Hints:
- The structure holds two protein chains of two kinds.
- Chain A is of the alpha/beta class.
- Chain A is built from 26 helices and 26 strands.
- Among the domains of chain A are: 7-71, no CATH class; 172-274 and 423-488, FAD/NAD(P)-binding domain; 278-420, FAD/NAD(P)-binding domain.
- Helices cover 32% and strands 20% of the residues of chain A.
- The longest helix of chain A has 20 residues, at 41-60.
- Chain B is α/β, with parallel strands linked by helices.
- Chain B has twelve helices and 13 strands.
- Chain B has helices at residues 37-51, 67-70, 89-99, 111-115, 119-127, 172-179, 192-204, 230-236, 286-298, 316-320, 332-335, 339-349, and strands at residues 59-63, 80-83, 104-110, 132-138, 141-142, 148-149, 183-188, 208-214, 237-239, 241-246, 261-265, 271-276, 302-309.
- In chain B, β1, α2 (67-70) and β2 (80-83) form a beta-alpha-beta unit.
- In chain B, α3 (89-99) runs parallel beside α5 (119-127).
Amino acid sequence: MEDKKYLYKRNNIWWVKVAVPKSQRDKFGYDLRQTTGKSDLDEARSVRDHIVESLKSKLSESENYIPLPSTKFMEKTNIENPQYFHKVVDCQYACPAHTNVPEYIRLIAQKKYTDAYMLNWESNVFPGILGRVCDRPCEPACRRGRTHEKSVAICRLKRVTYDYKDDVEKYIPKSPKIKNGKKIALIGAGPASLTVARDLLPLGYECTIFEKDHKAGGLMRTNIPSFRLPADVLDEEIYRIIDMGAELKLNSYIDKLKPVIDEYDSVFIGTGAPKGKDLNLKGREISSENIHIGIDWLTSIAFEHVKKIGKKVVVIGGGNTAMDCCRSALRLGATDVKVTVRSPFSQMKASEWEIEETMEEGIPILDNTSPKEFLFDDKGKLCGVKFEKMEQVEIDGRKKMQSTGEELTIECDDVLLAIGQENAFPWIEKDIGIEFGEWEMPVVDKLTMQSTHPKVFFGGDSAWGPENIIWAVSHGHQAAISIDNFCSGVSLKERPDPITNLVSQKMGIHEWSYDNDISQEKRFSVPHEELSKSLKNLKTEVELGFDEELALEEAQRCLNCDMQTVFEDDLCIECDACVDICPTDCINFVDNDTEEKVRDKLRVPALNLDQSLYVSGKLKTGRRMVKDEDMCVHCGLCAERCPTGAWDIKKNSYKESHTLTNKVVAKEVA
Amino acid sequence: MSFKKPINHHPKLETNKLGLTRRDYEGAVSTLCAGCGHDSISAAIIESCFKLNIEAYKVAKLSGIGCSSKAPAYFLEQSHGFNSVHGRMPSVATGANCANRDLMYLGVSGDGDSASIGLGQFVHAIRRQVDMVYFVENNGTYGLTKGQFSATNDLESKNKYGEDNLFKPIDLATMAIQLGATYVARSFSGDRDQLVPLIMGAMQHKGFALLDIISPCVTFNNHDSSTKSYDYIRDHNEAVGKTDFVPLGEEISTSYKEGSSTEISLHDGSKLTLEKTDANFDPRDAGKALNFIREKEKEGKVVTGLLYVNDLAKDLNETLNVTQTPLSQLQQDVLCPGSKILEEINQSLS
Lengths: 670, 350
């Protein structure tokens, strides 16, 4: 018998295989394999020992060595895992609240604005607000950004659902007359608390919201100027929740937590990150009259305590608050407003579109400019700020800002500081079991939102520092699940599964229940109010929103990424029809290999590692169907071309579970 | 309804020396049945033209009647095309070929168009050595008329309705070798790796190149008792070896075991290499090739690959000493040398 130890043949090439000891299989898989690259047995034998040694040394090497990706062959993709197709819907996956974006865009295309609004409301609670001011993590994720340059205007289409909906009151669940006897305290009437209330009220929880100001909304109201987010939109969406049956206590600053914990079954803290950072430079101590903390100043405007500002204003900071400050200053009568940023322009923290709008209003942004000293005249009145110019240098591979030595003085009447926000919990007693960790932040469980006190939950900015509204909503949903579990005596780790469905969309030959034509239109921009009008009044909304015609055109740009190409191994006859018709060369039939090699040998190598490969089981010829999900435009042509129905287009609906959808809907069905 | 393919392509799609992508060589979206082998052949032609950096306007696509003959609409949208009478594509190709030697001629035909109504035309195109690539998209059935047997269908096979085929098939590939075709290959639409180098070789070959490509008819001839189905061909395929096309100026990168490979130079300087699986086979020896095919046929195998090649033969235009200039570009002074020359000719005859 010929000596074939460690050797096996595959596609006419000899491979070496080394079994992995049981203890290490978790890390390495069942075996290690490597090709000899030889088809002749004698030649393969000659290199075998060397390869065996190298594979064995892999097993004995340090624990940090992870050969798994390079030695394990690809396995058949498990599409039953709800996360697989969810990940293909890039926008929904990127959204912290997992809003079903393609579905609501399709509803817009069908002019079903109310349905589209309600679909949003279920996931993100504040469609009208978010449709104006969301940080839109969905848009950079949008597939169109990879295939056709610019993403779909998802956020602005969300606003369309708000602007064009009919009365939705009849769809809003109310708190039942018979309560479940559990009382929940929600501290801070911002998006996080409101989400928790919305999710718990229909289950019969008695929710009491405590708000320190005289109006609800939290930072949504105080920190976002009304030219971006009109008060009536805020009021409508906030009171939609309050009117479900929550008790709102305004002007109720909580100065001690202990009594609240004692009185209620559970406490949710959604007090945001309310403390704006100060800048202790030379001159700061002389007078604070004309030096304002940005978010406090914005709050004063929102509550109409501040109605004017000096002619010359300098804003320090490069985030979204800085953009709101400078634009508000312009509307309060300032004539010369400048923004100064310490970092280079390209690294500013503000959202791209907010920077754009700021610049459109004629406000200069001076980058690489770091404040050094506040200057005062002899009467002790602020008269300017001294800056030094910075440059970015690389030291040991790390980017650092460094002074160039050049100085710059900007004259001004007022300074607005927008250099960040912090959490502050002076009202939480230190001895009641709530632990605080680094930077005085509460210790909060990432999954359950529970603090170290079992009854107390955190969410929104108060949990892990400043984020944005959509994250607060997401925290709220999770906290509501936890609170419901906690009050029902269920383990907090038992989270409800997402609700998924995968249904064929075939209506006939070449006919699908969705519009699979790919629009070639460029992204439509939202019309703006004329500058001469919008700059005059703080309350004039700058963005006018899409009109119906534009909205419908923009909706057509959506690629329907929830329409999944689903492959049935047994039906495939490997005729290559799908390979040839695919406009973006996603589909391949190749021999199995390690993921790295499979990615490399596709028609167009799959270099975007963030996107999955869809791998079939072994087909008749021994090959596998491998689809690179990266560039799929969901046109459905593969399924139209398939003679045997091995490809089908199925709509994947994925809904994150909330207490509201889970229990209330279940009850209705029952 | 989608009868158009989105124009968008993968942003990282490869481009050739002309700066074109594979997508630029496409045609209209096929209206053949989904899964038709002919569409795979069209895709292989697209791939070959892309790899050979062919300029579409220098190609003429000619066809007759049948499913196969619709196919030219589905590739090389910017090429010339002529859809002729049933079985008469070879005549049109012959004429066009003499009229303009600058173009590459792709004749696309099927088993009905070539082995039945056009058999006489097929034979004479080979006999005359027309410089063209002749594709027979061979599915062994008359698909457009609902699946009757064609002349290439095997004796033992049945049609979709269970009836026996009573006649022996015509093998166009062996016939072509016997008639003196200088490049003969058989392949399978479902084996793109084999097909593309064979098409590239045929396109670079000077003289008559026949590609007999078994192309399953998914609608009428892809059933269990068919000998031209995807499954049957995959099970009975006997490749004479692996053919590689090596473009001009590129080195042969694969290393072959000594004695197992054959290297064939084409007239433009590109090369074909064949890694043989059987030592008795030699694609440069027509006799051996024919014997090999017959032997394997007896074993129930369908021999595929490059069966015969001879790159030294004269083509029709050389035999007839046809002008290199396309006739459309010949000026009057060349076409009509004048009465003085006529006088001289007449004088010489008297």
